Amino acid sequence: MKLARVLTIIFSLGIFLLLNNFDKRYYQPSLPVLDSNWTNLVFGVDSDKSIEELSTKYITVDNDGDIQHFLTTAPTPIDALIENGYSVSNMNRVITTSPLNVLTNNAYIILQTYRTIIEDITISVPFERITQGTTLCQNLSKKIVSQQGVLGVMTQTFKKTYEGGDLVASEIVEENLLKDPVKEIVILEGPDDNPNQVPQIGYNCTYWESYIDNNVSASAEEKQWLKFTMRWESGCNGESNKGYYKGLFQWDPCLWYEQFPNDNIFDGKKQIQRTLAKLRAGARPQYMWPAVYKKYVAKYGELSWLK
Questions:
Q1: Neighbours of 28 (CB within 10 A)
Q2: Any idea where the domains of the chain sit in the sequence?
Q3: What are phi and psi of 15, to 5 degrees?
Q4: What tens digit of pLDDT does each residue of 174-210 get?
Q5: Superfamily grouping for domain 44-114
């Protein structure tokens, strides 16, 4: 009896130990772990997208500055706009924080409306101003209008495009000239001498130096200064007309004609006569001919009457 009881206890203990060390994976069923995309495993459907498409969304619509809020189950922003009574056509532009193919919650939708109008306006057409005549000094000249200018008249047809209340594009689609403008003609009267009115001697220092030596009553120093100055100012060319200053001694035309209105500035003999007289009257050559006078002083020294 004792042996039988011992064997029974040993057998029971072995069964207990065996059961406690048994790997549970052999008797617990294996179940799949479900996540938020479990419907993908069963139906092949994106659950987030399905919920997003089917649920009610809160949206804000800005229609050219008129802001409204809505709850909608529409699948896309365009559908949401149509569902809430907005007109959507090629004259509208839709801007949204949501993708255009799916409406998301809290989407902000801007609806910009374009409108086109045709507008006719009448404008003035400017006339052309024609100036006839020439002058060597504008300040001493007169302008005489021989024909009054008259503005023309034109109509223009504009195509204007507005975005909301803002003009975003404008183009002229048609123009009609109703009245031609009339040109204004101005006659310019003033000093208008030209080099062709005097003997054509050209660049000729020999000629002009000889003229000064034999025909001008002046001191040797005065003659020296006259010959030096005309050589550097014009190259001894009485018809010199390249820039603003003119003639043998490159006089300012306005100064010349203000003082000698009846003398042709291109007449070399007159320029010698008037220049010498101006010098004797106290004109400062360092002011009237500054660059050349510096050269003269560097070579010959200061003029005696200026010391």
A1: 8
A2: 44-114, 117-189, 195-306
A3: -65, -40
A4: 999 999 999 999 999 999 999 999 999 999 999 999 9
A5: Beta-grasp domain (3.10.20.30)
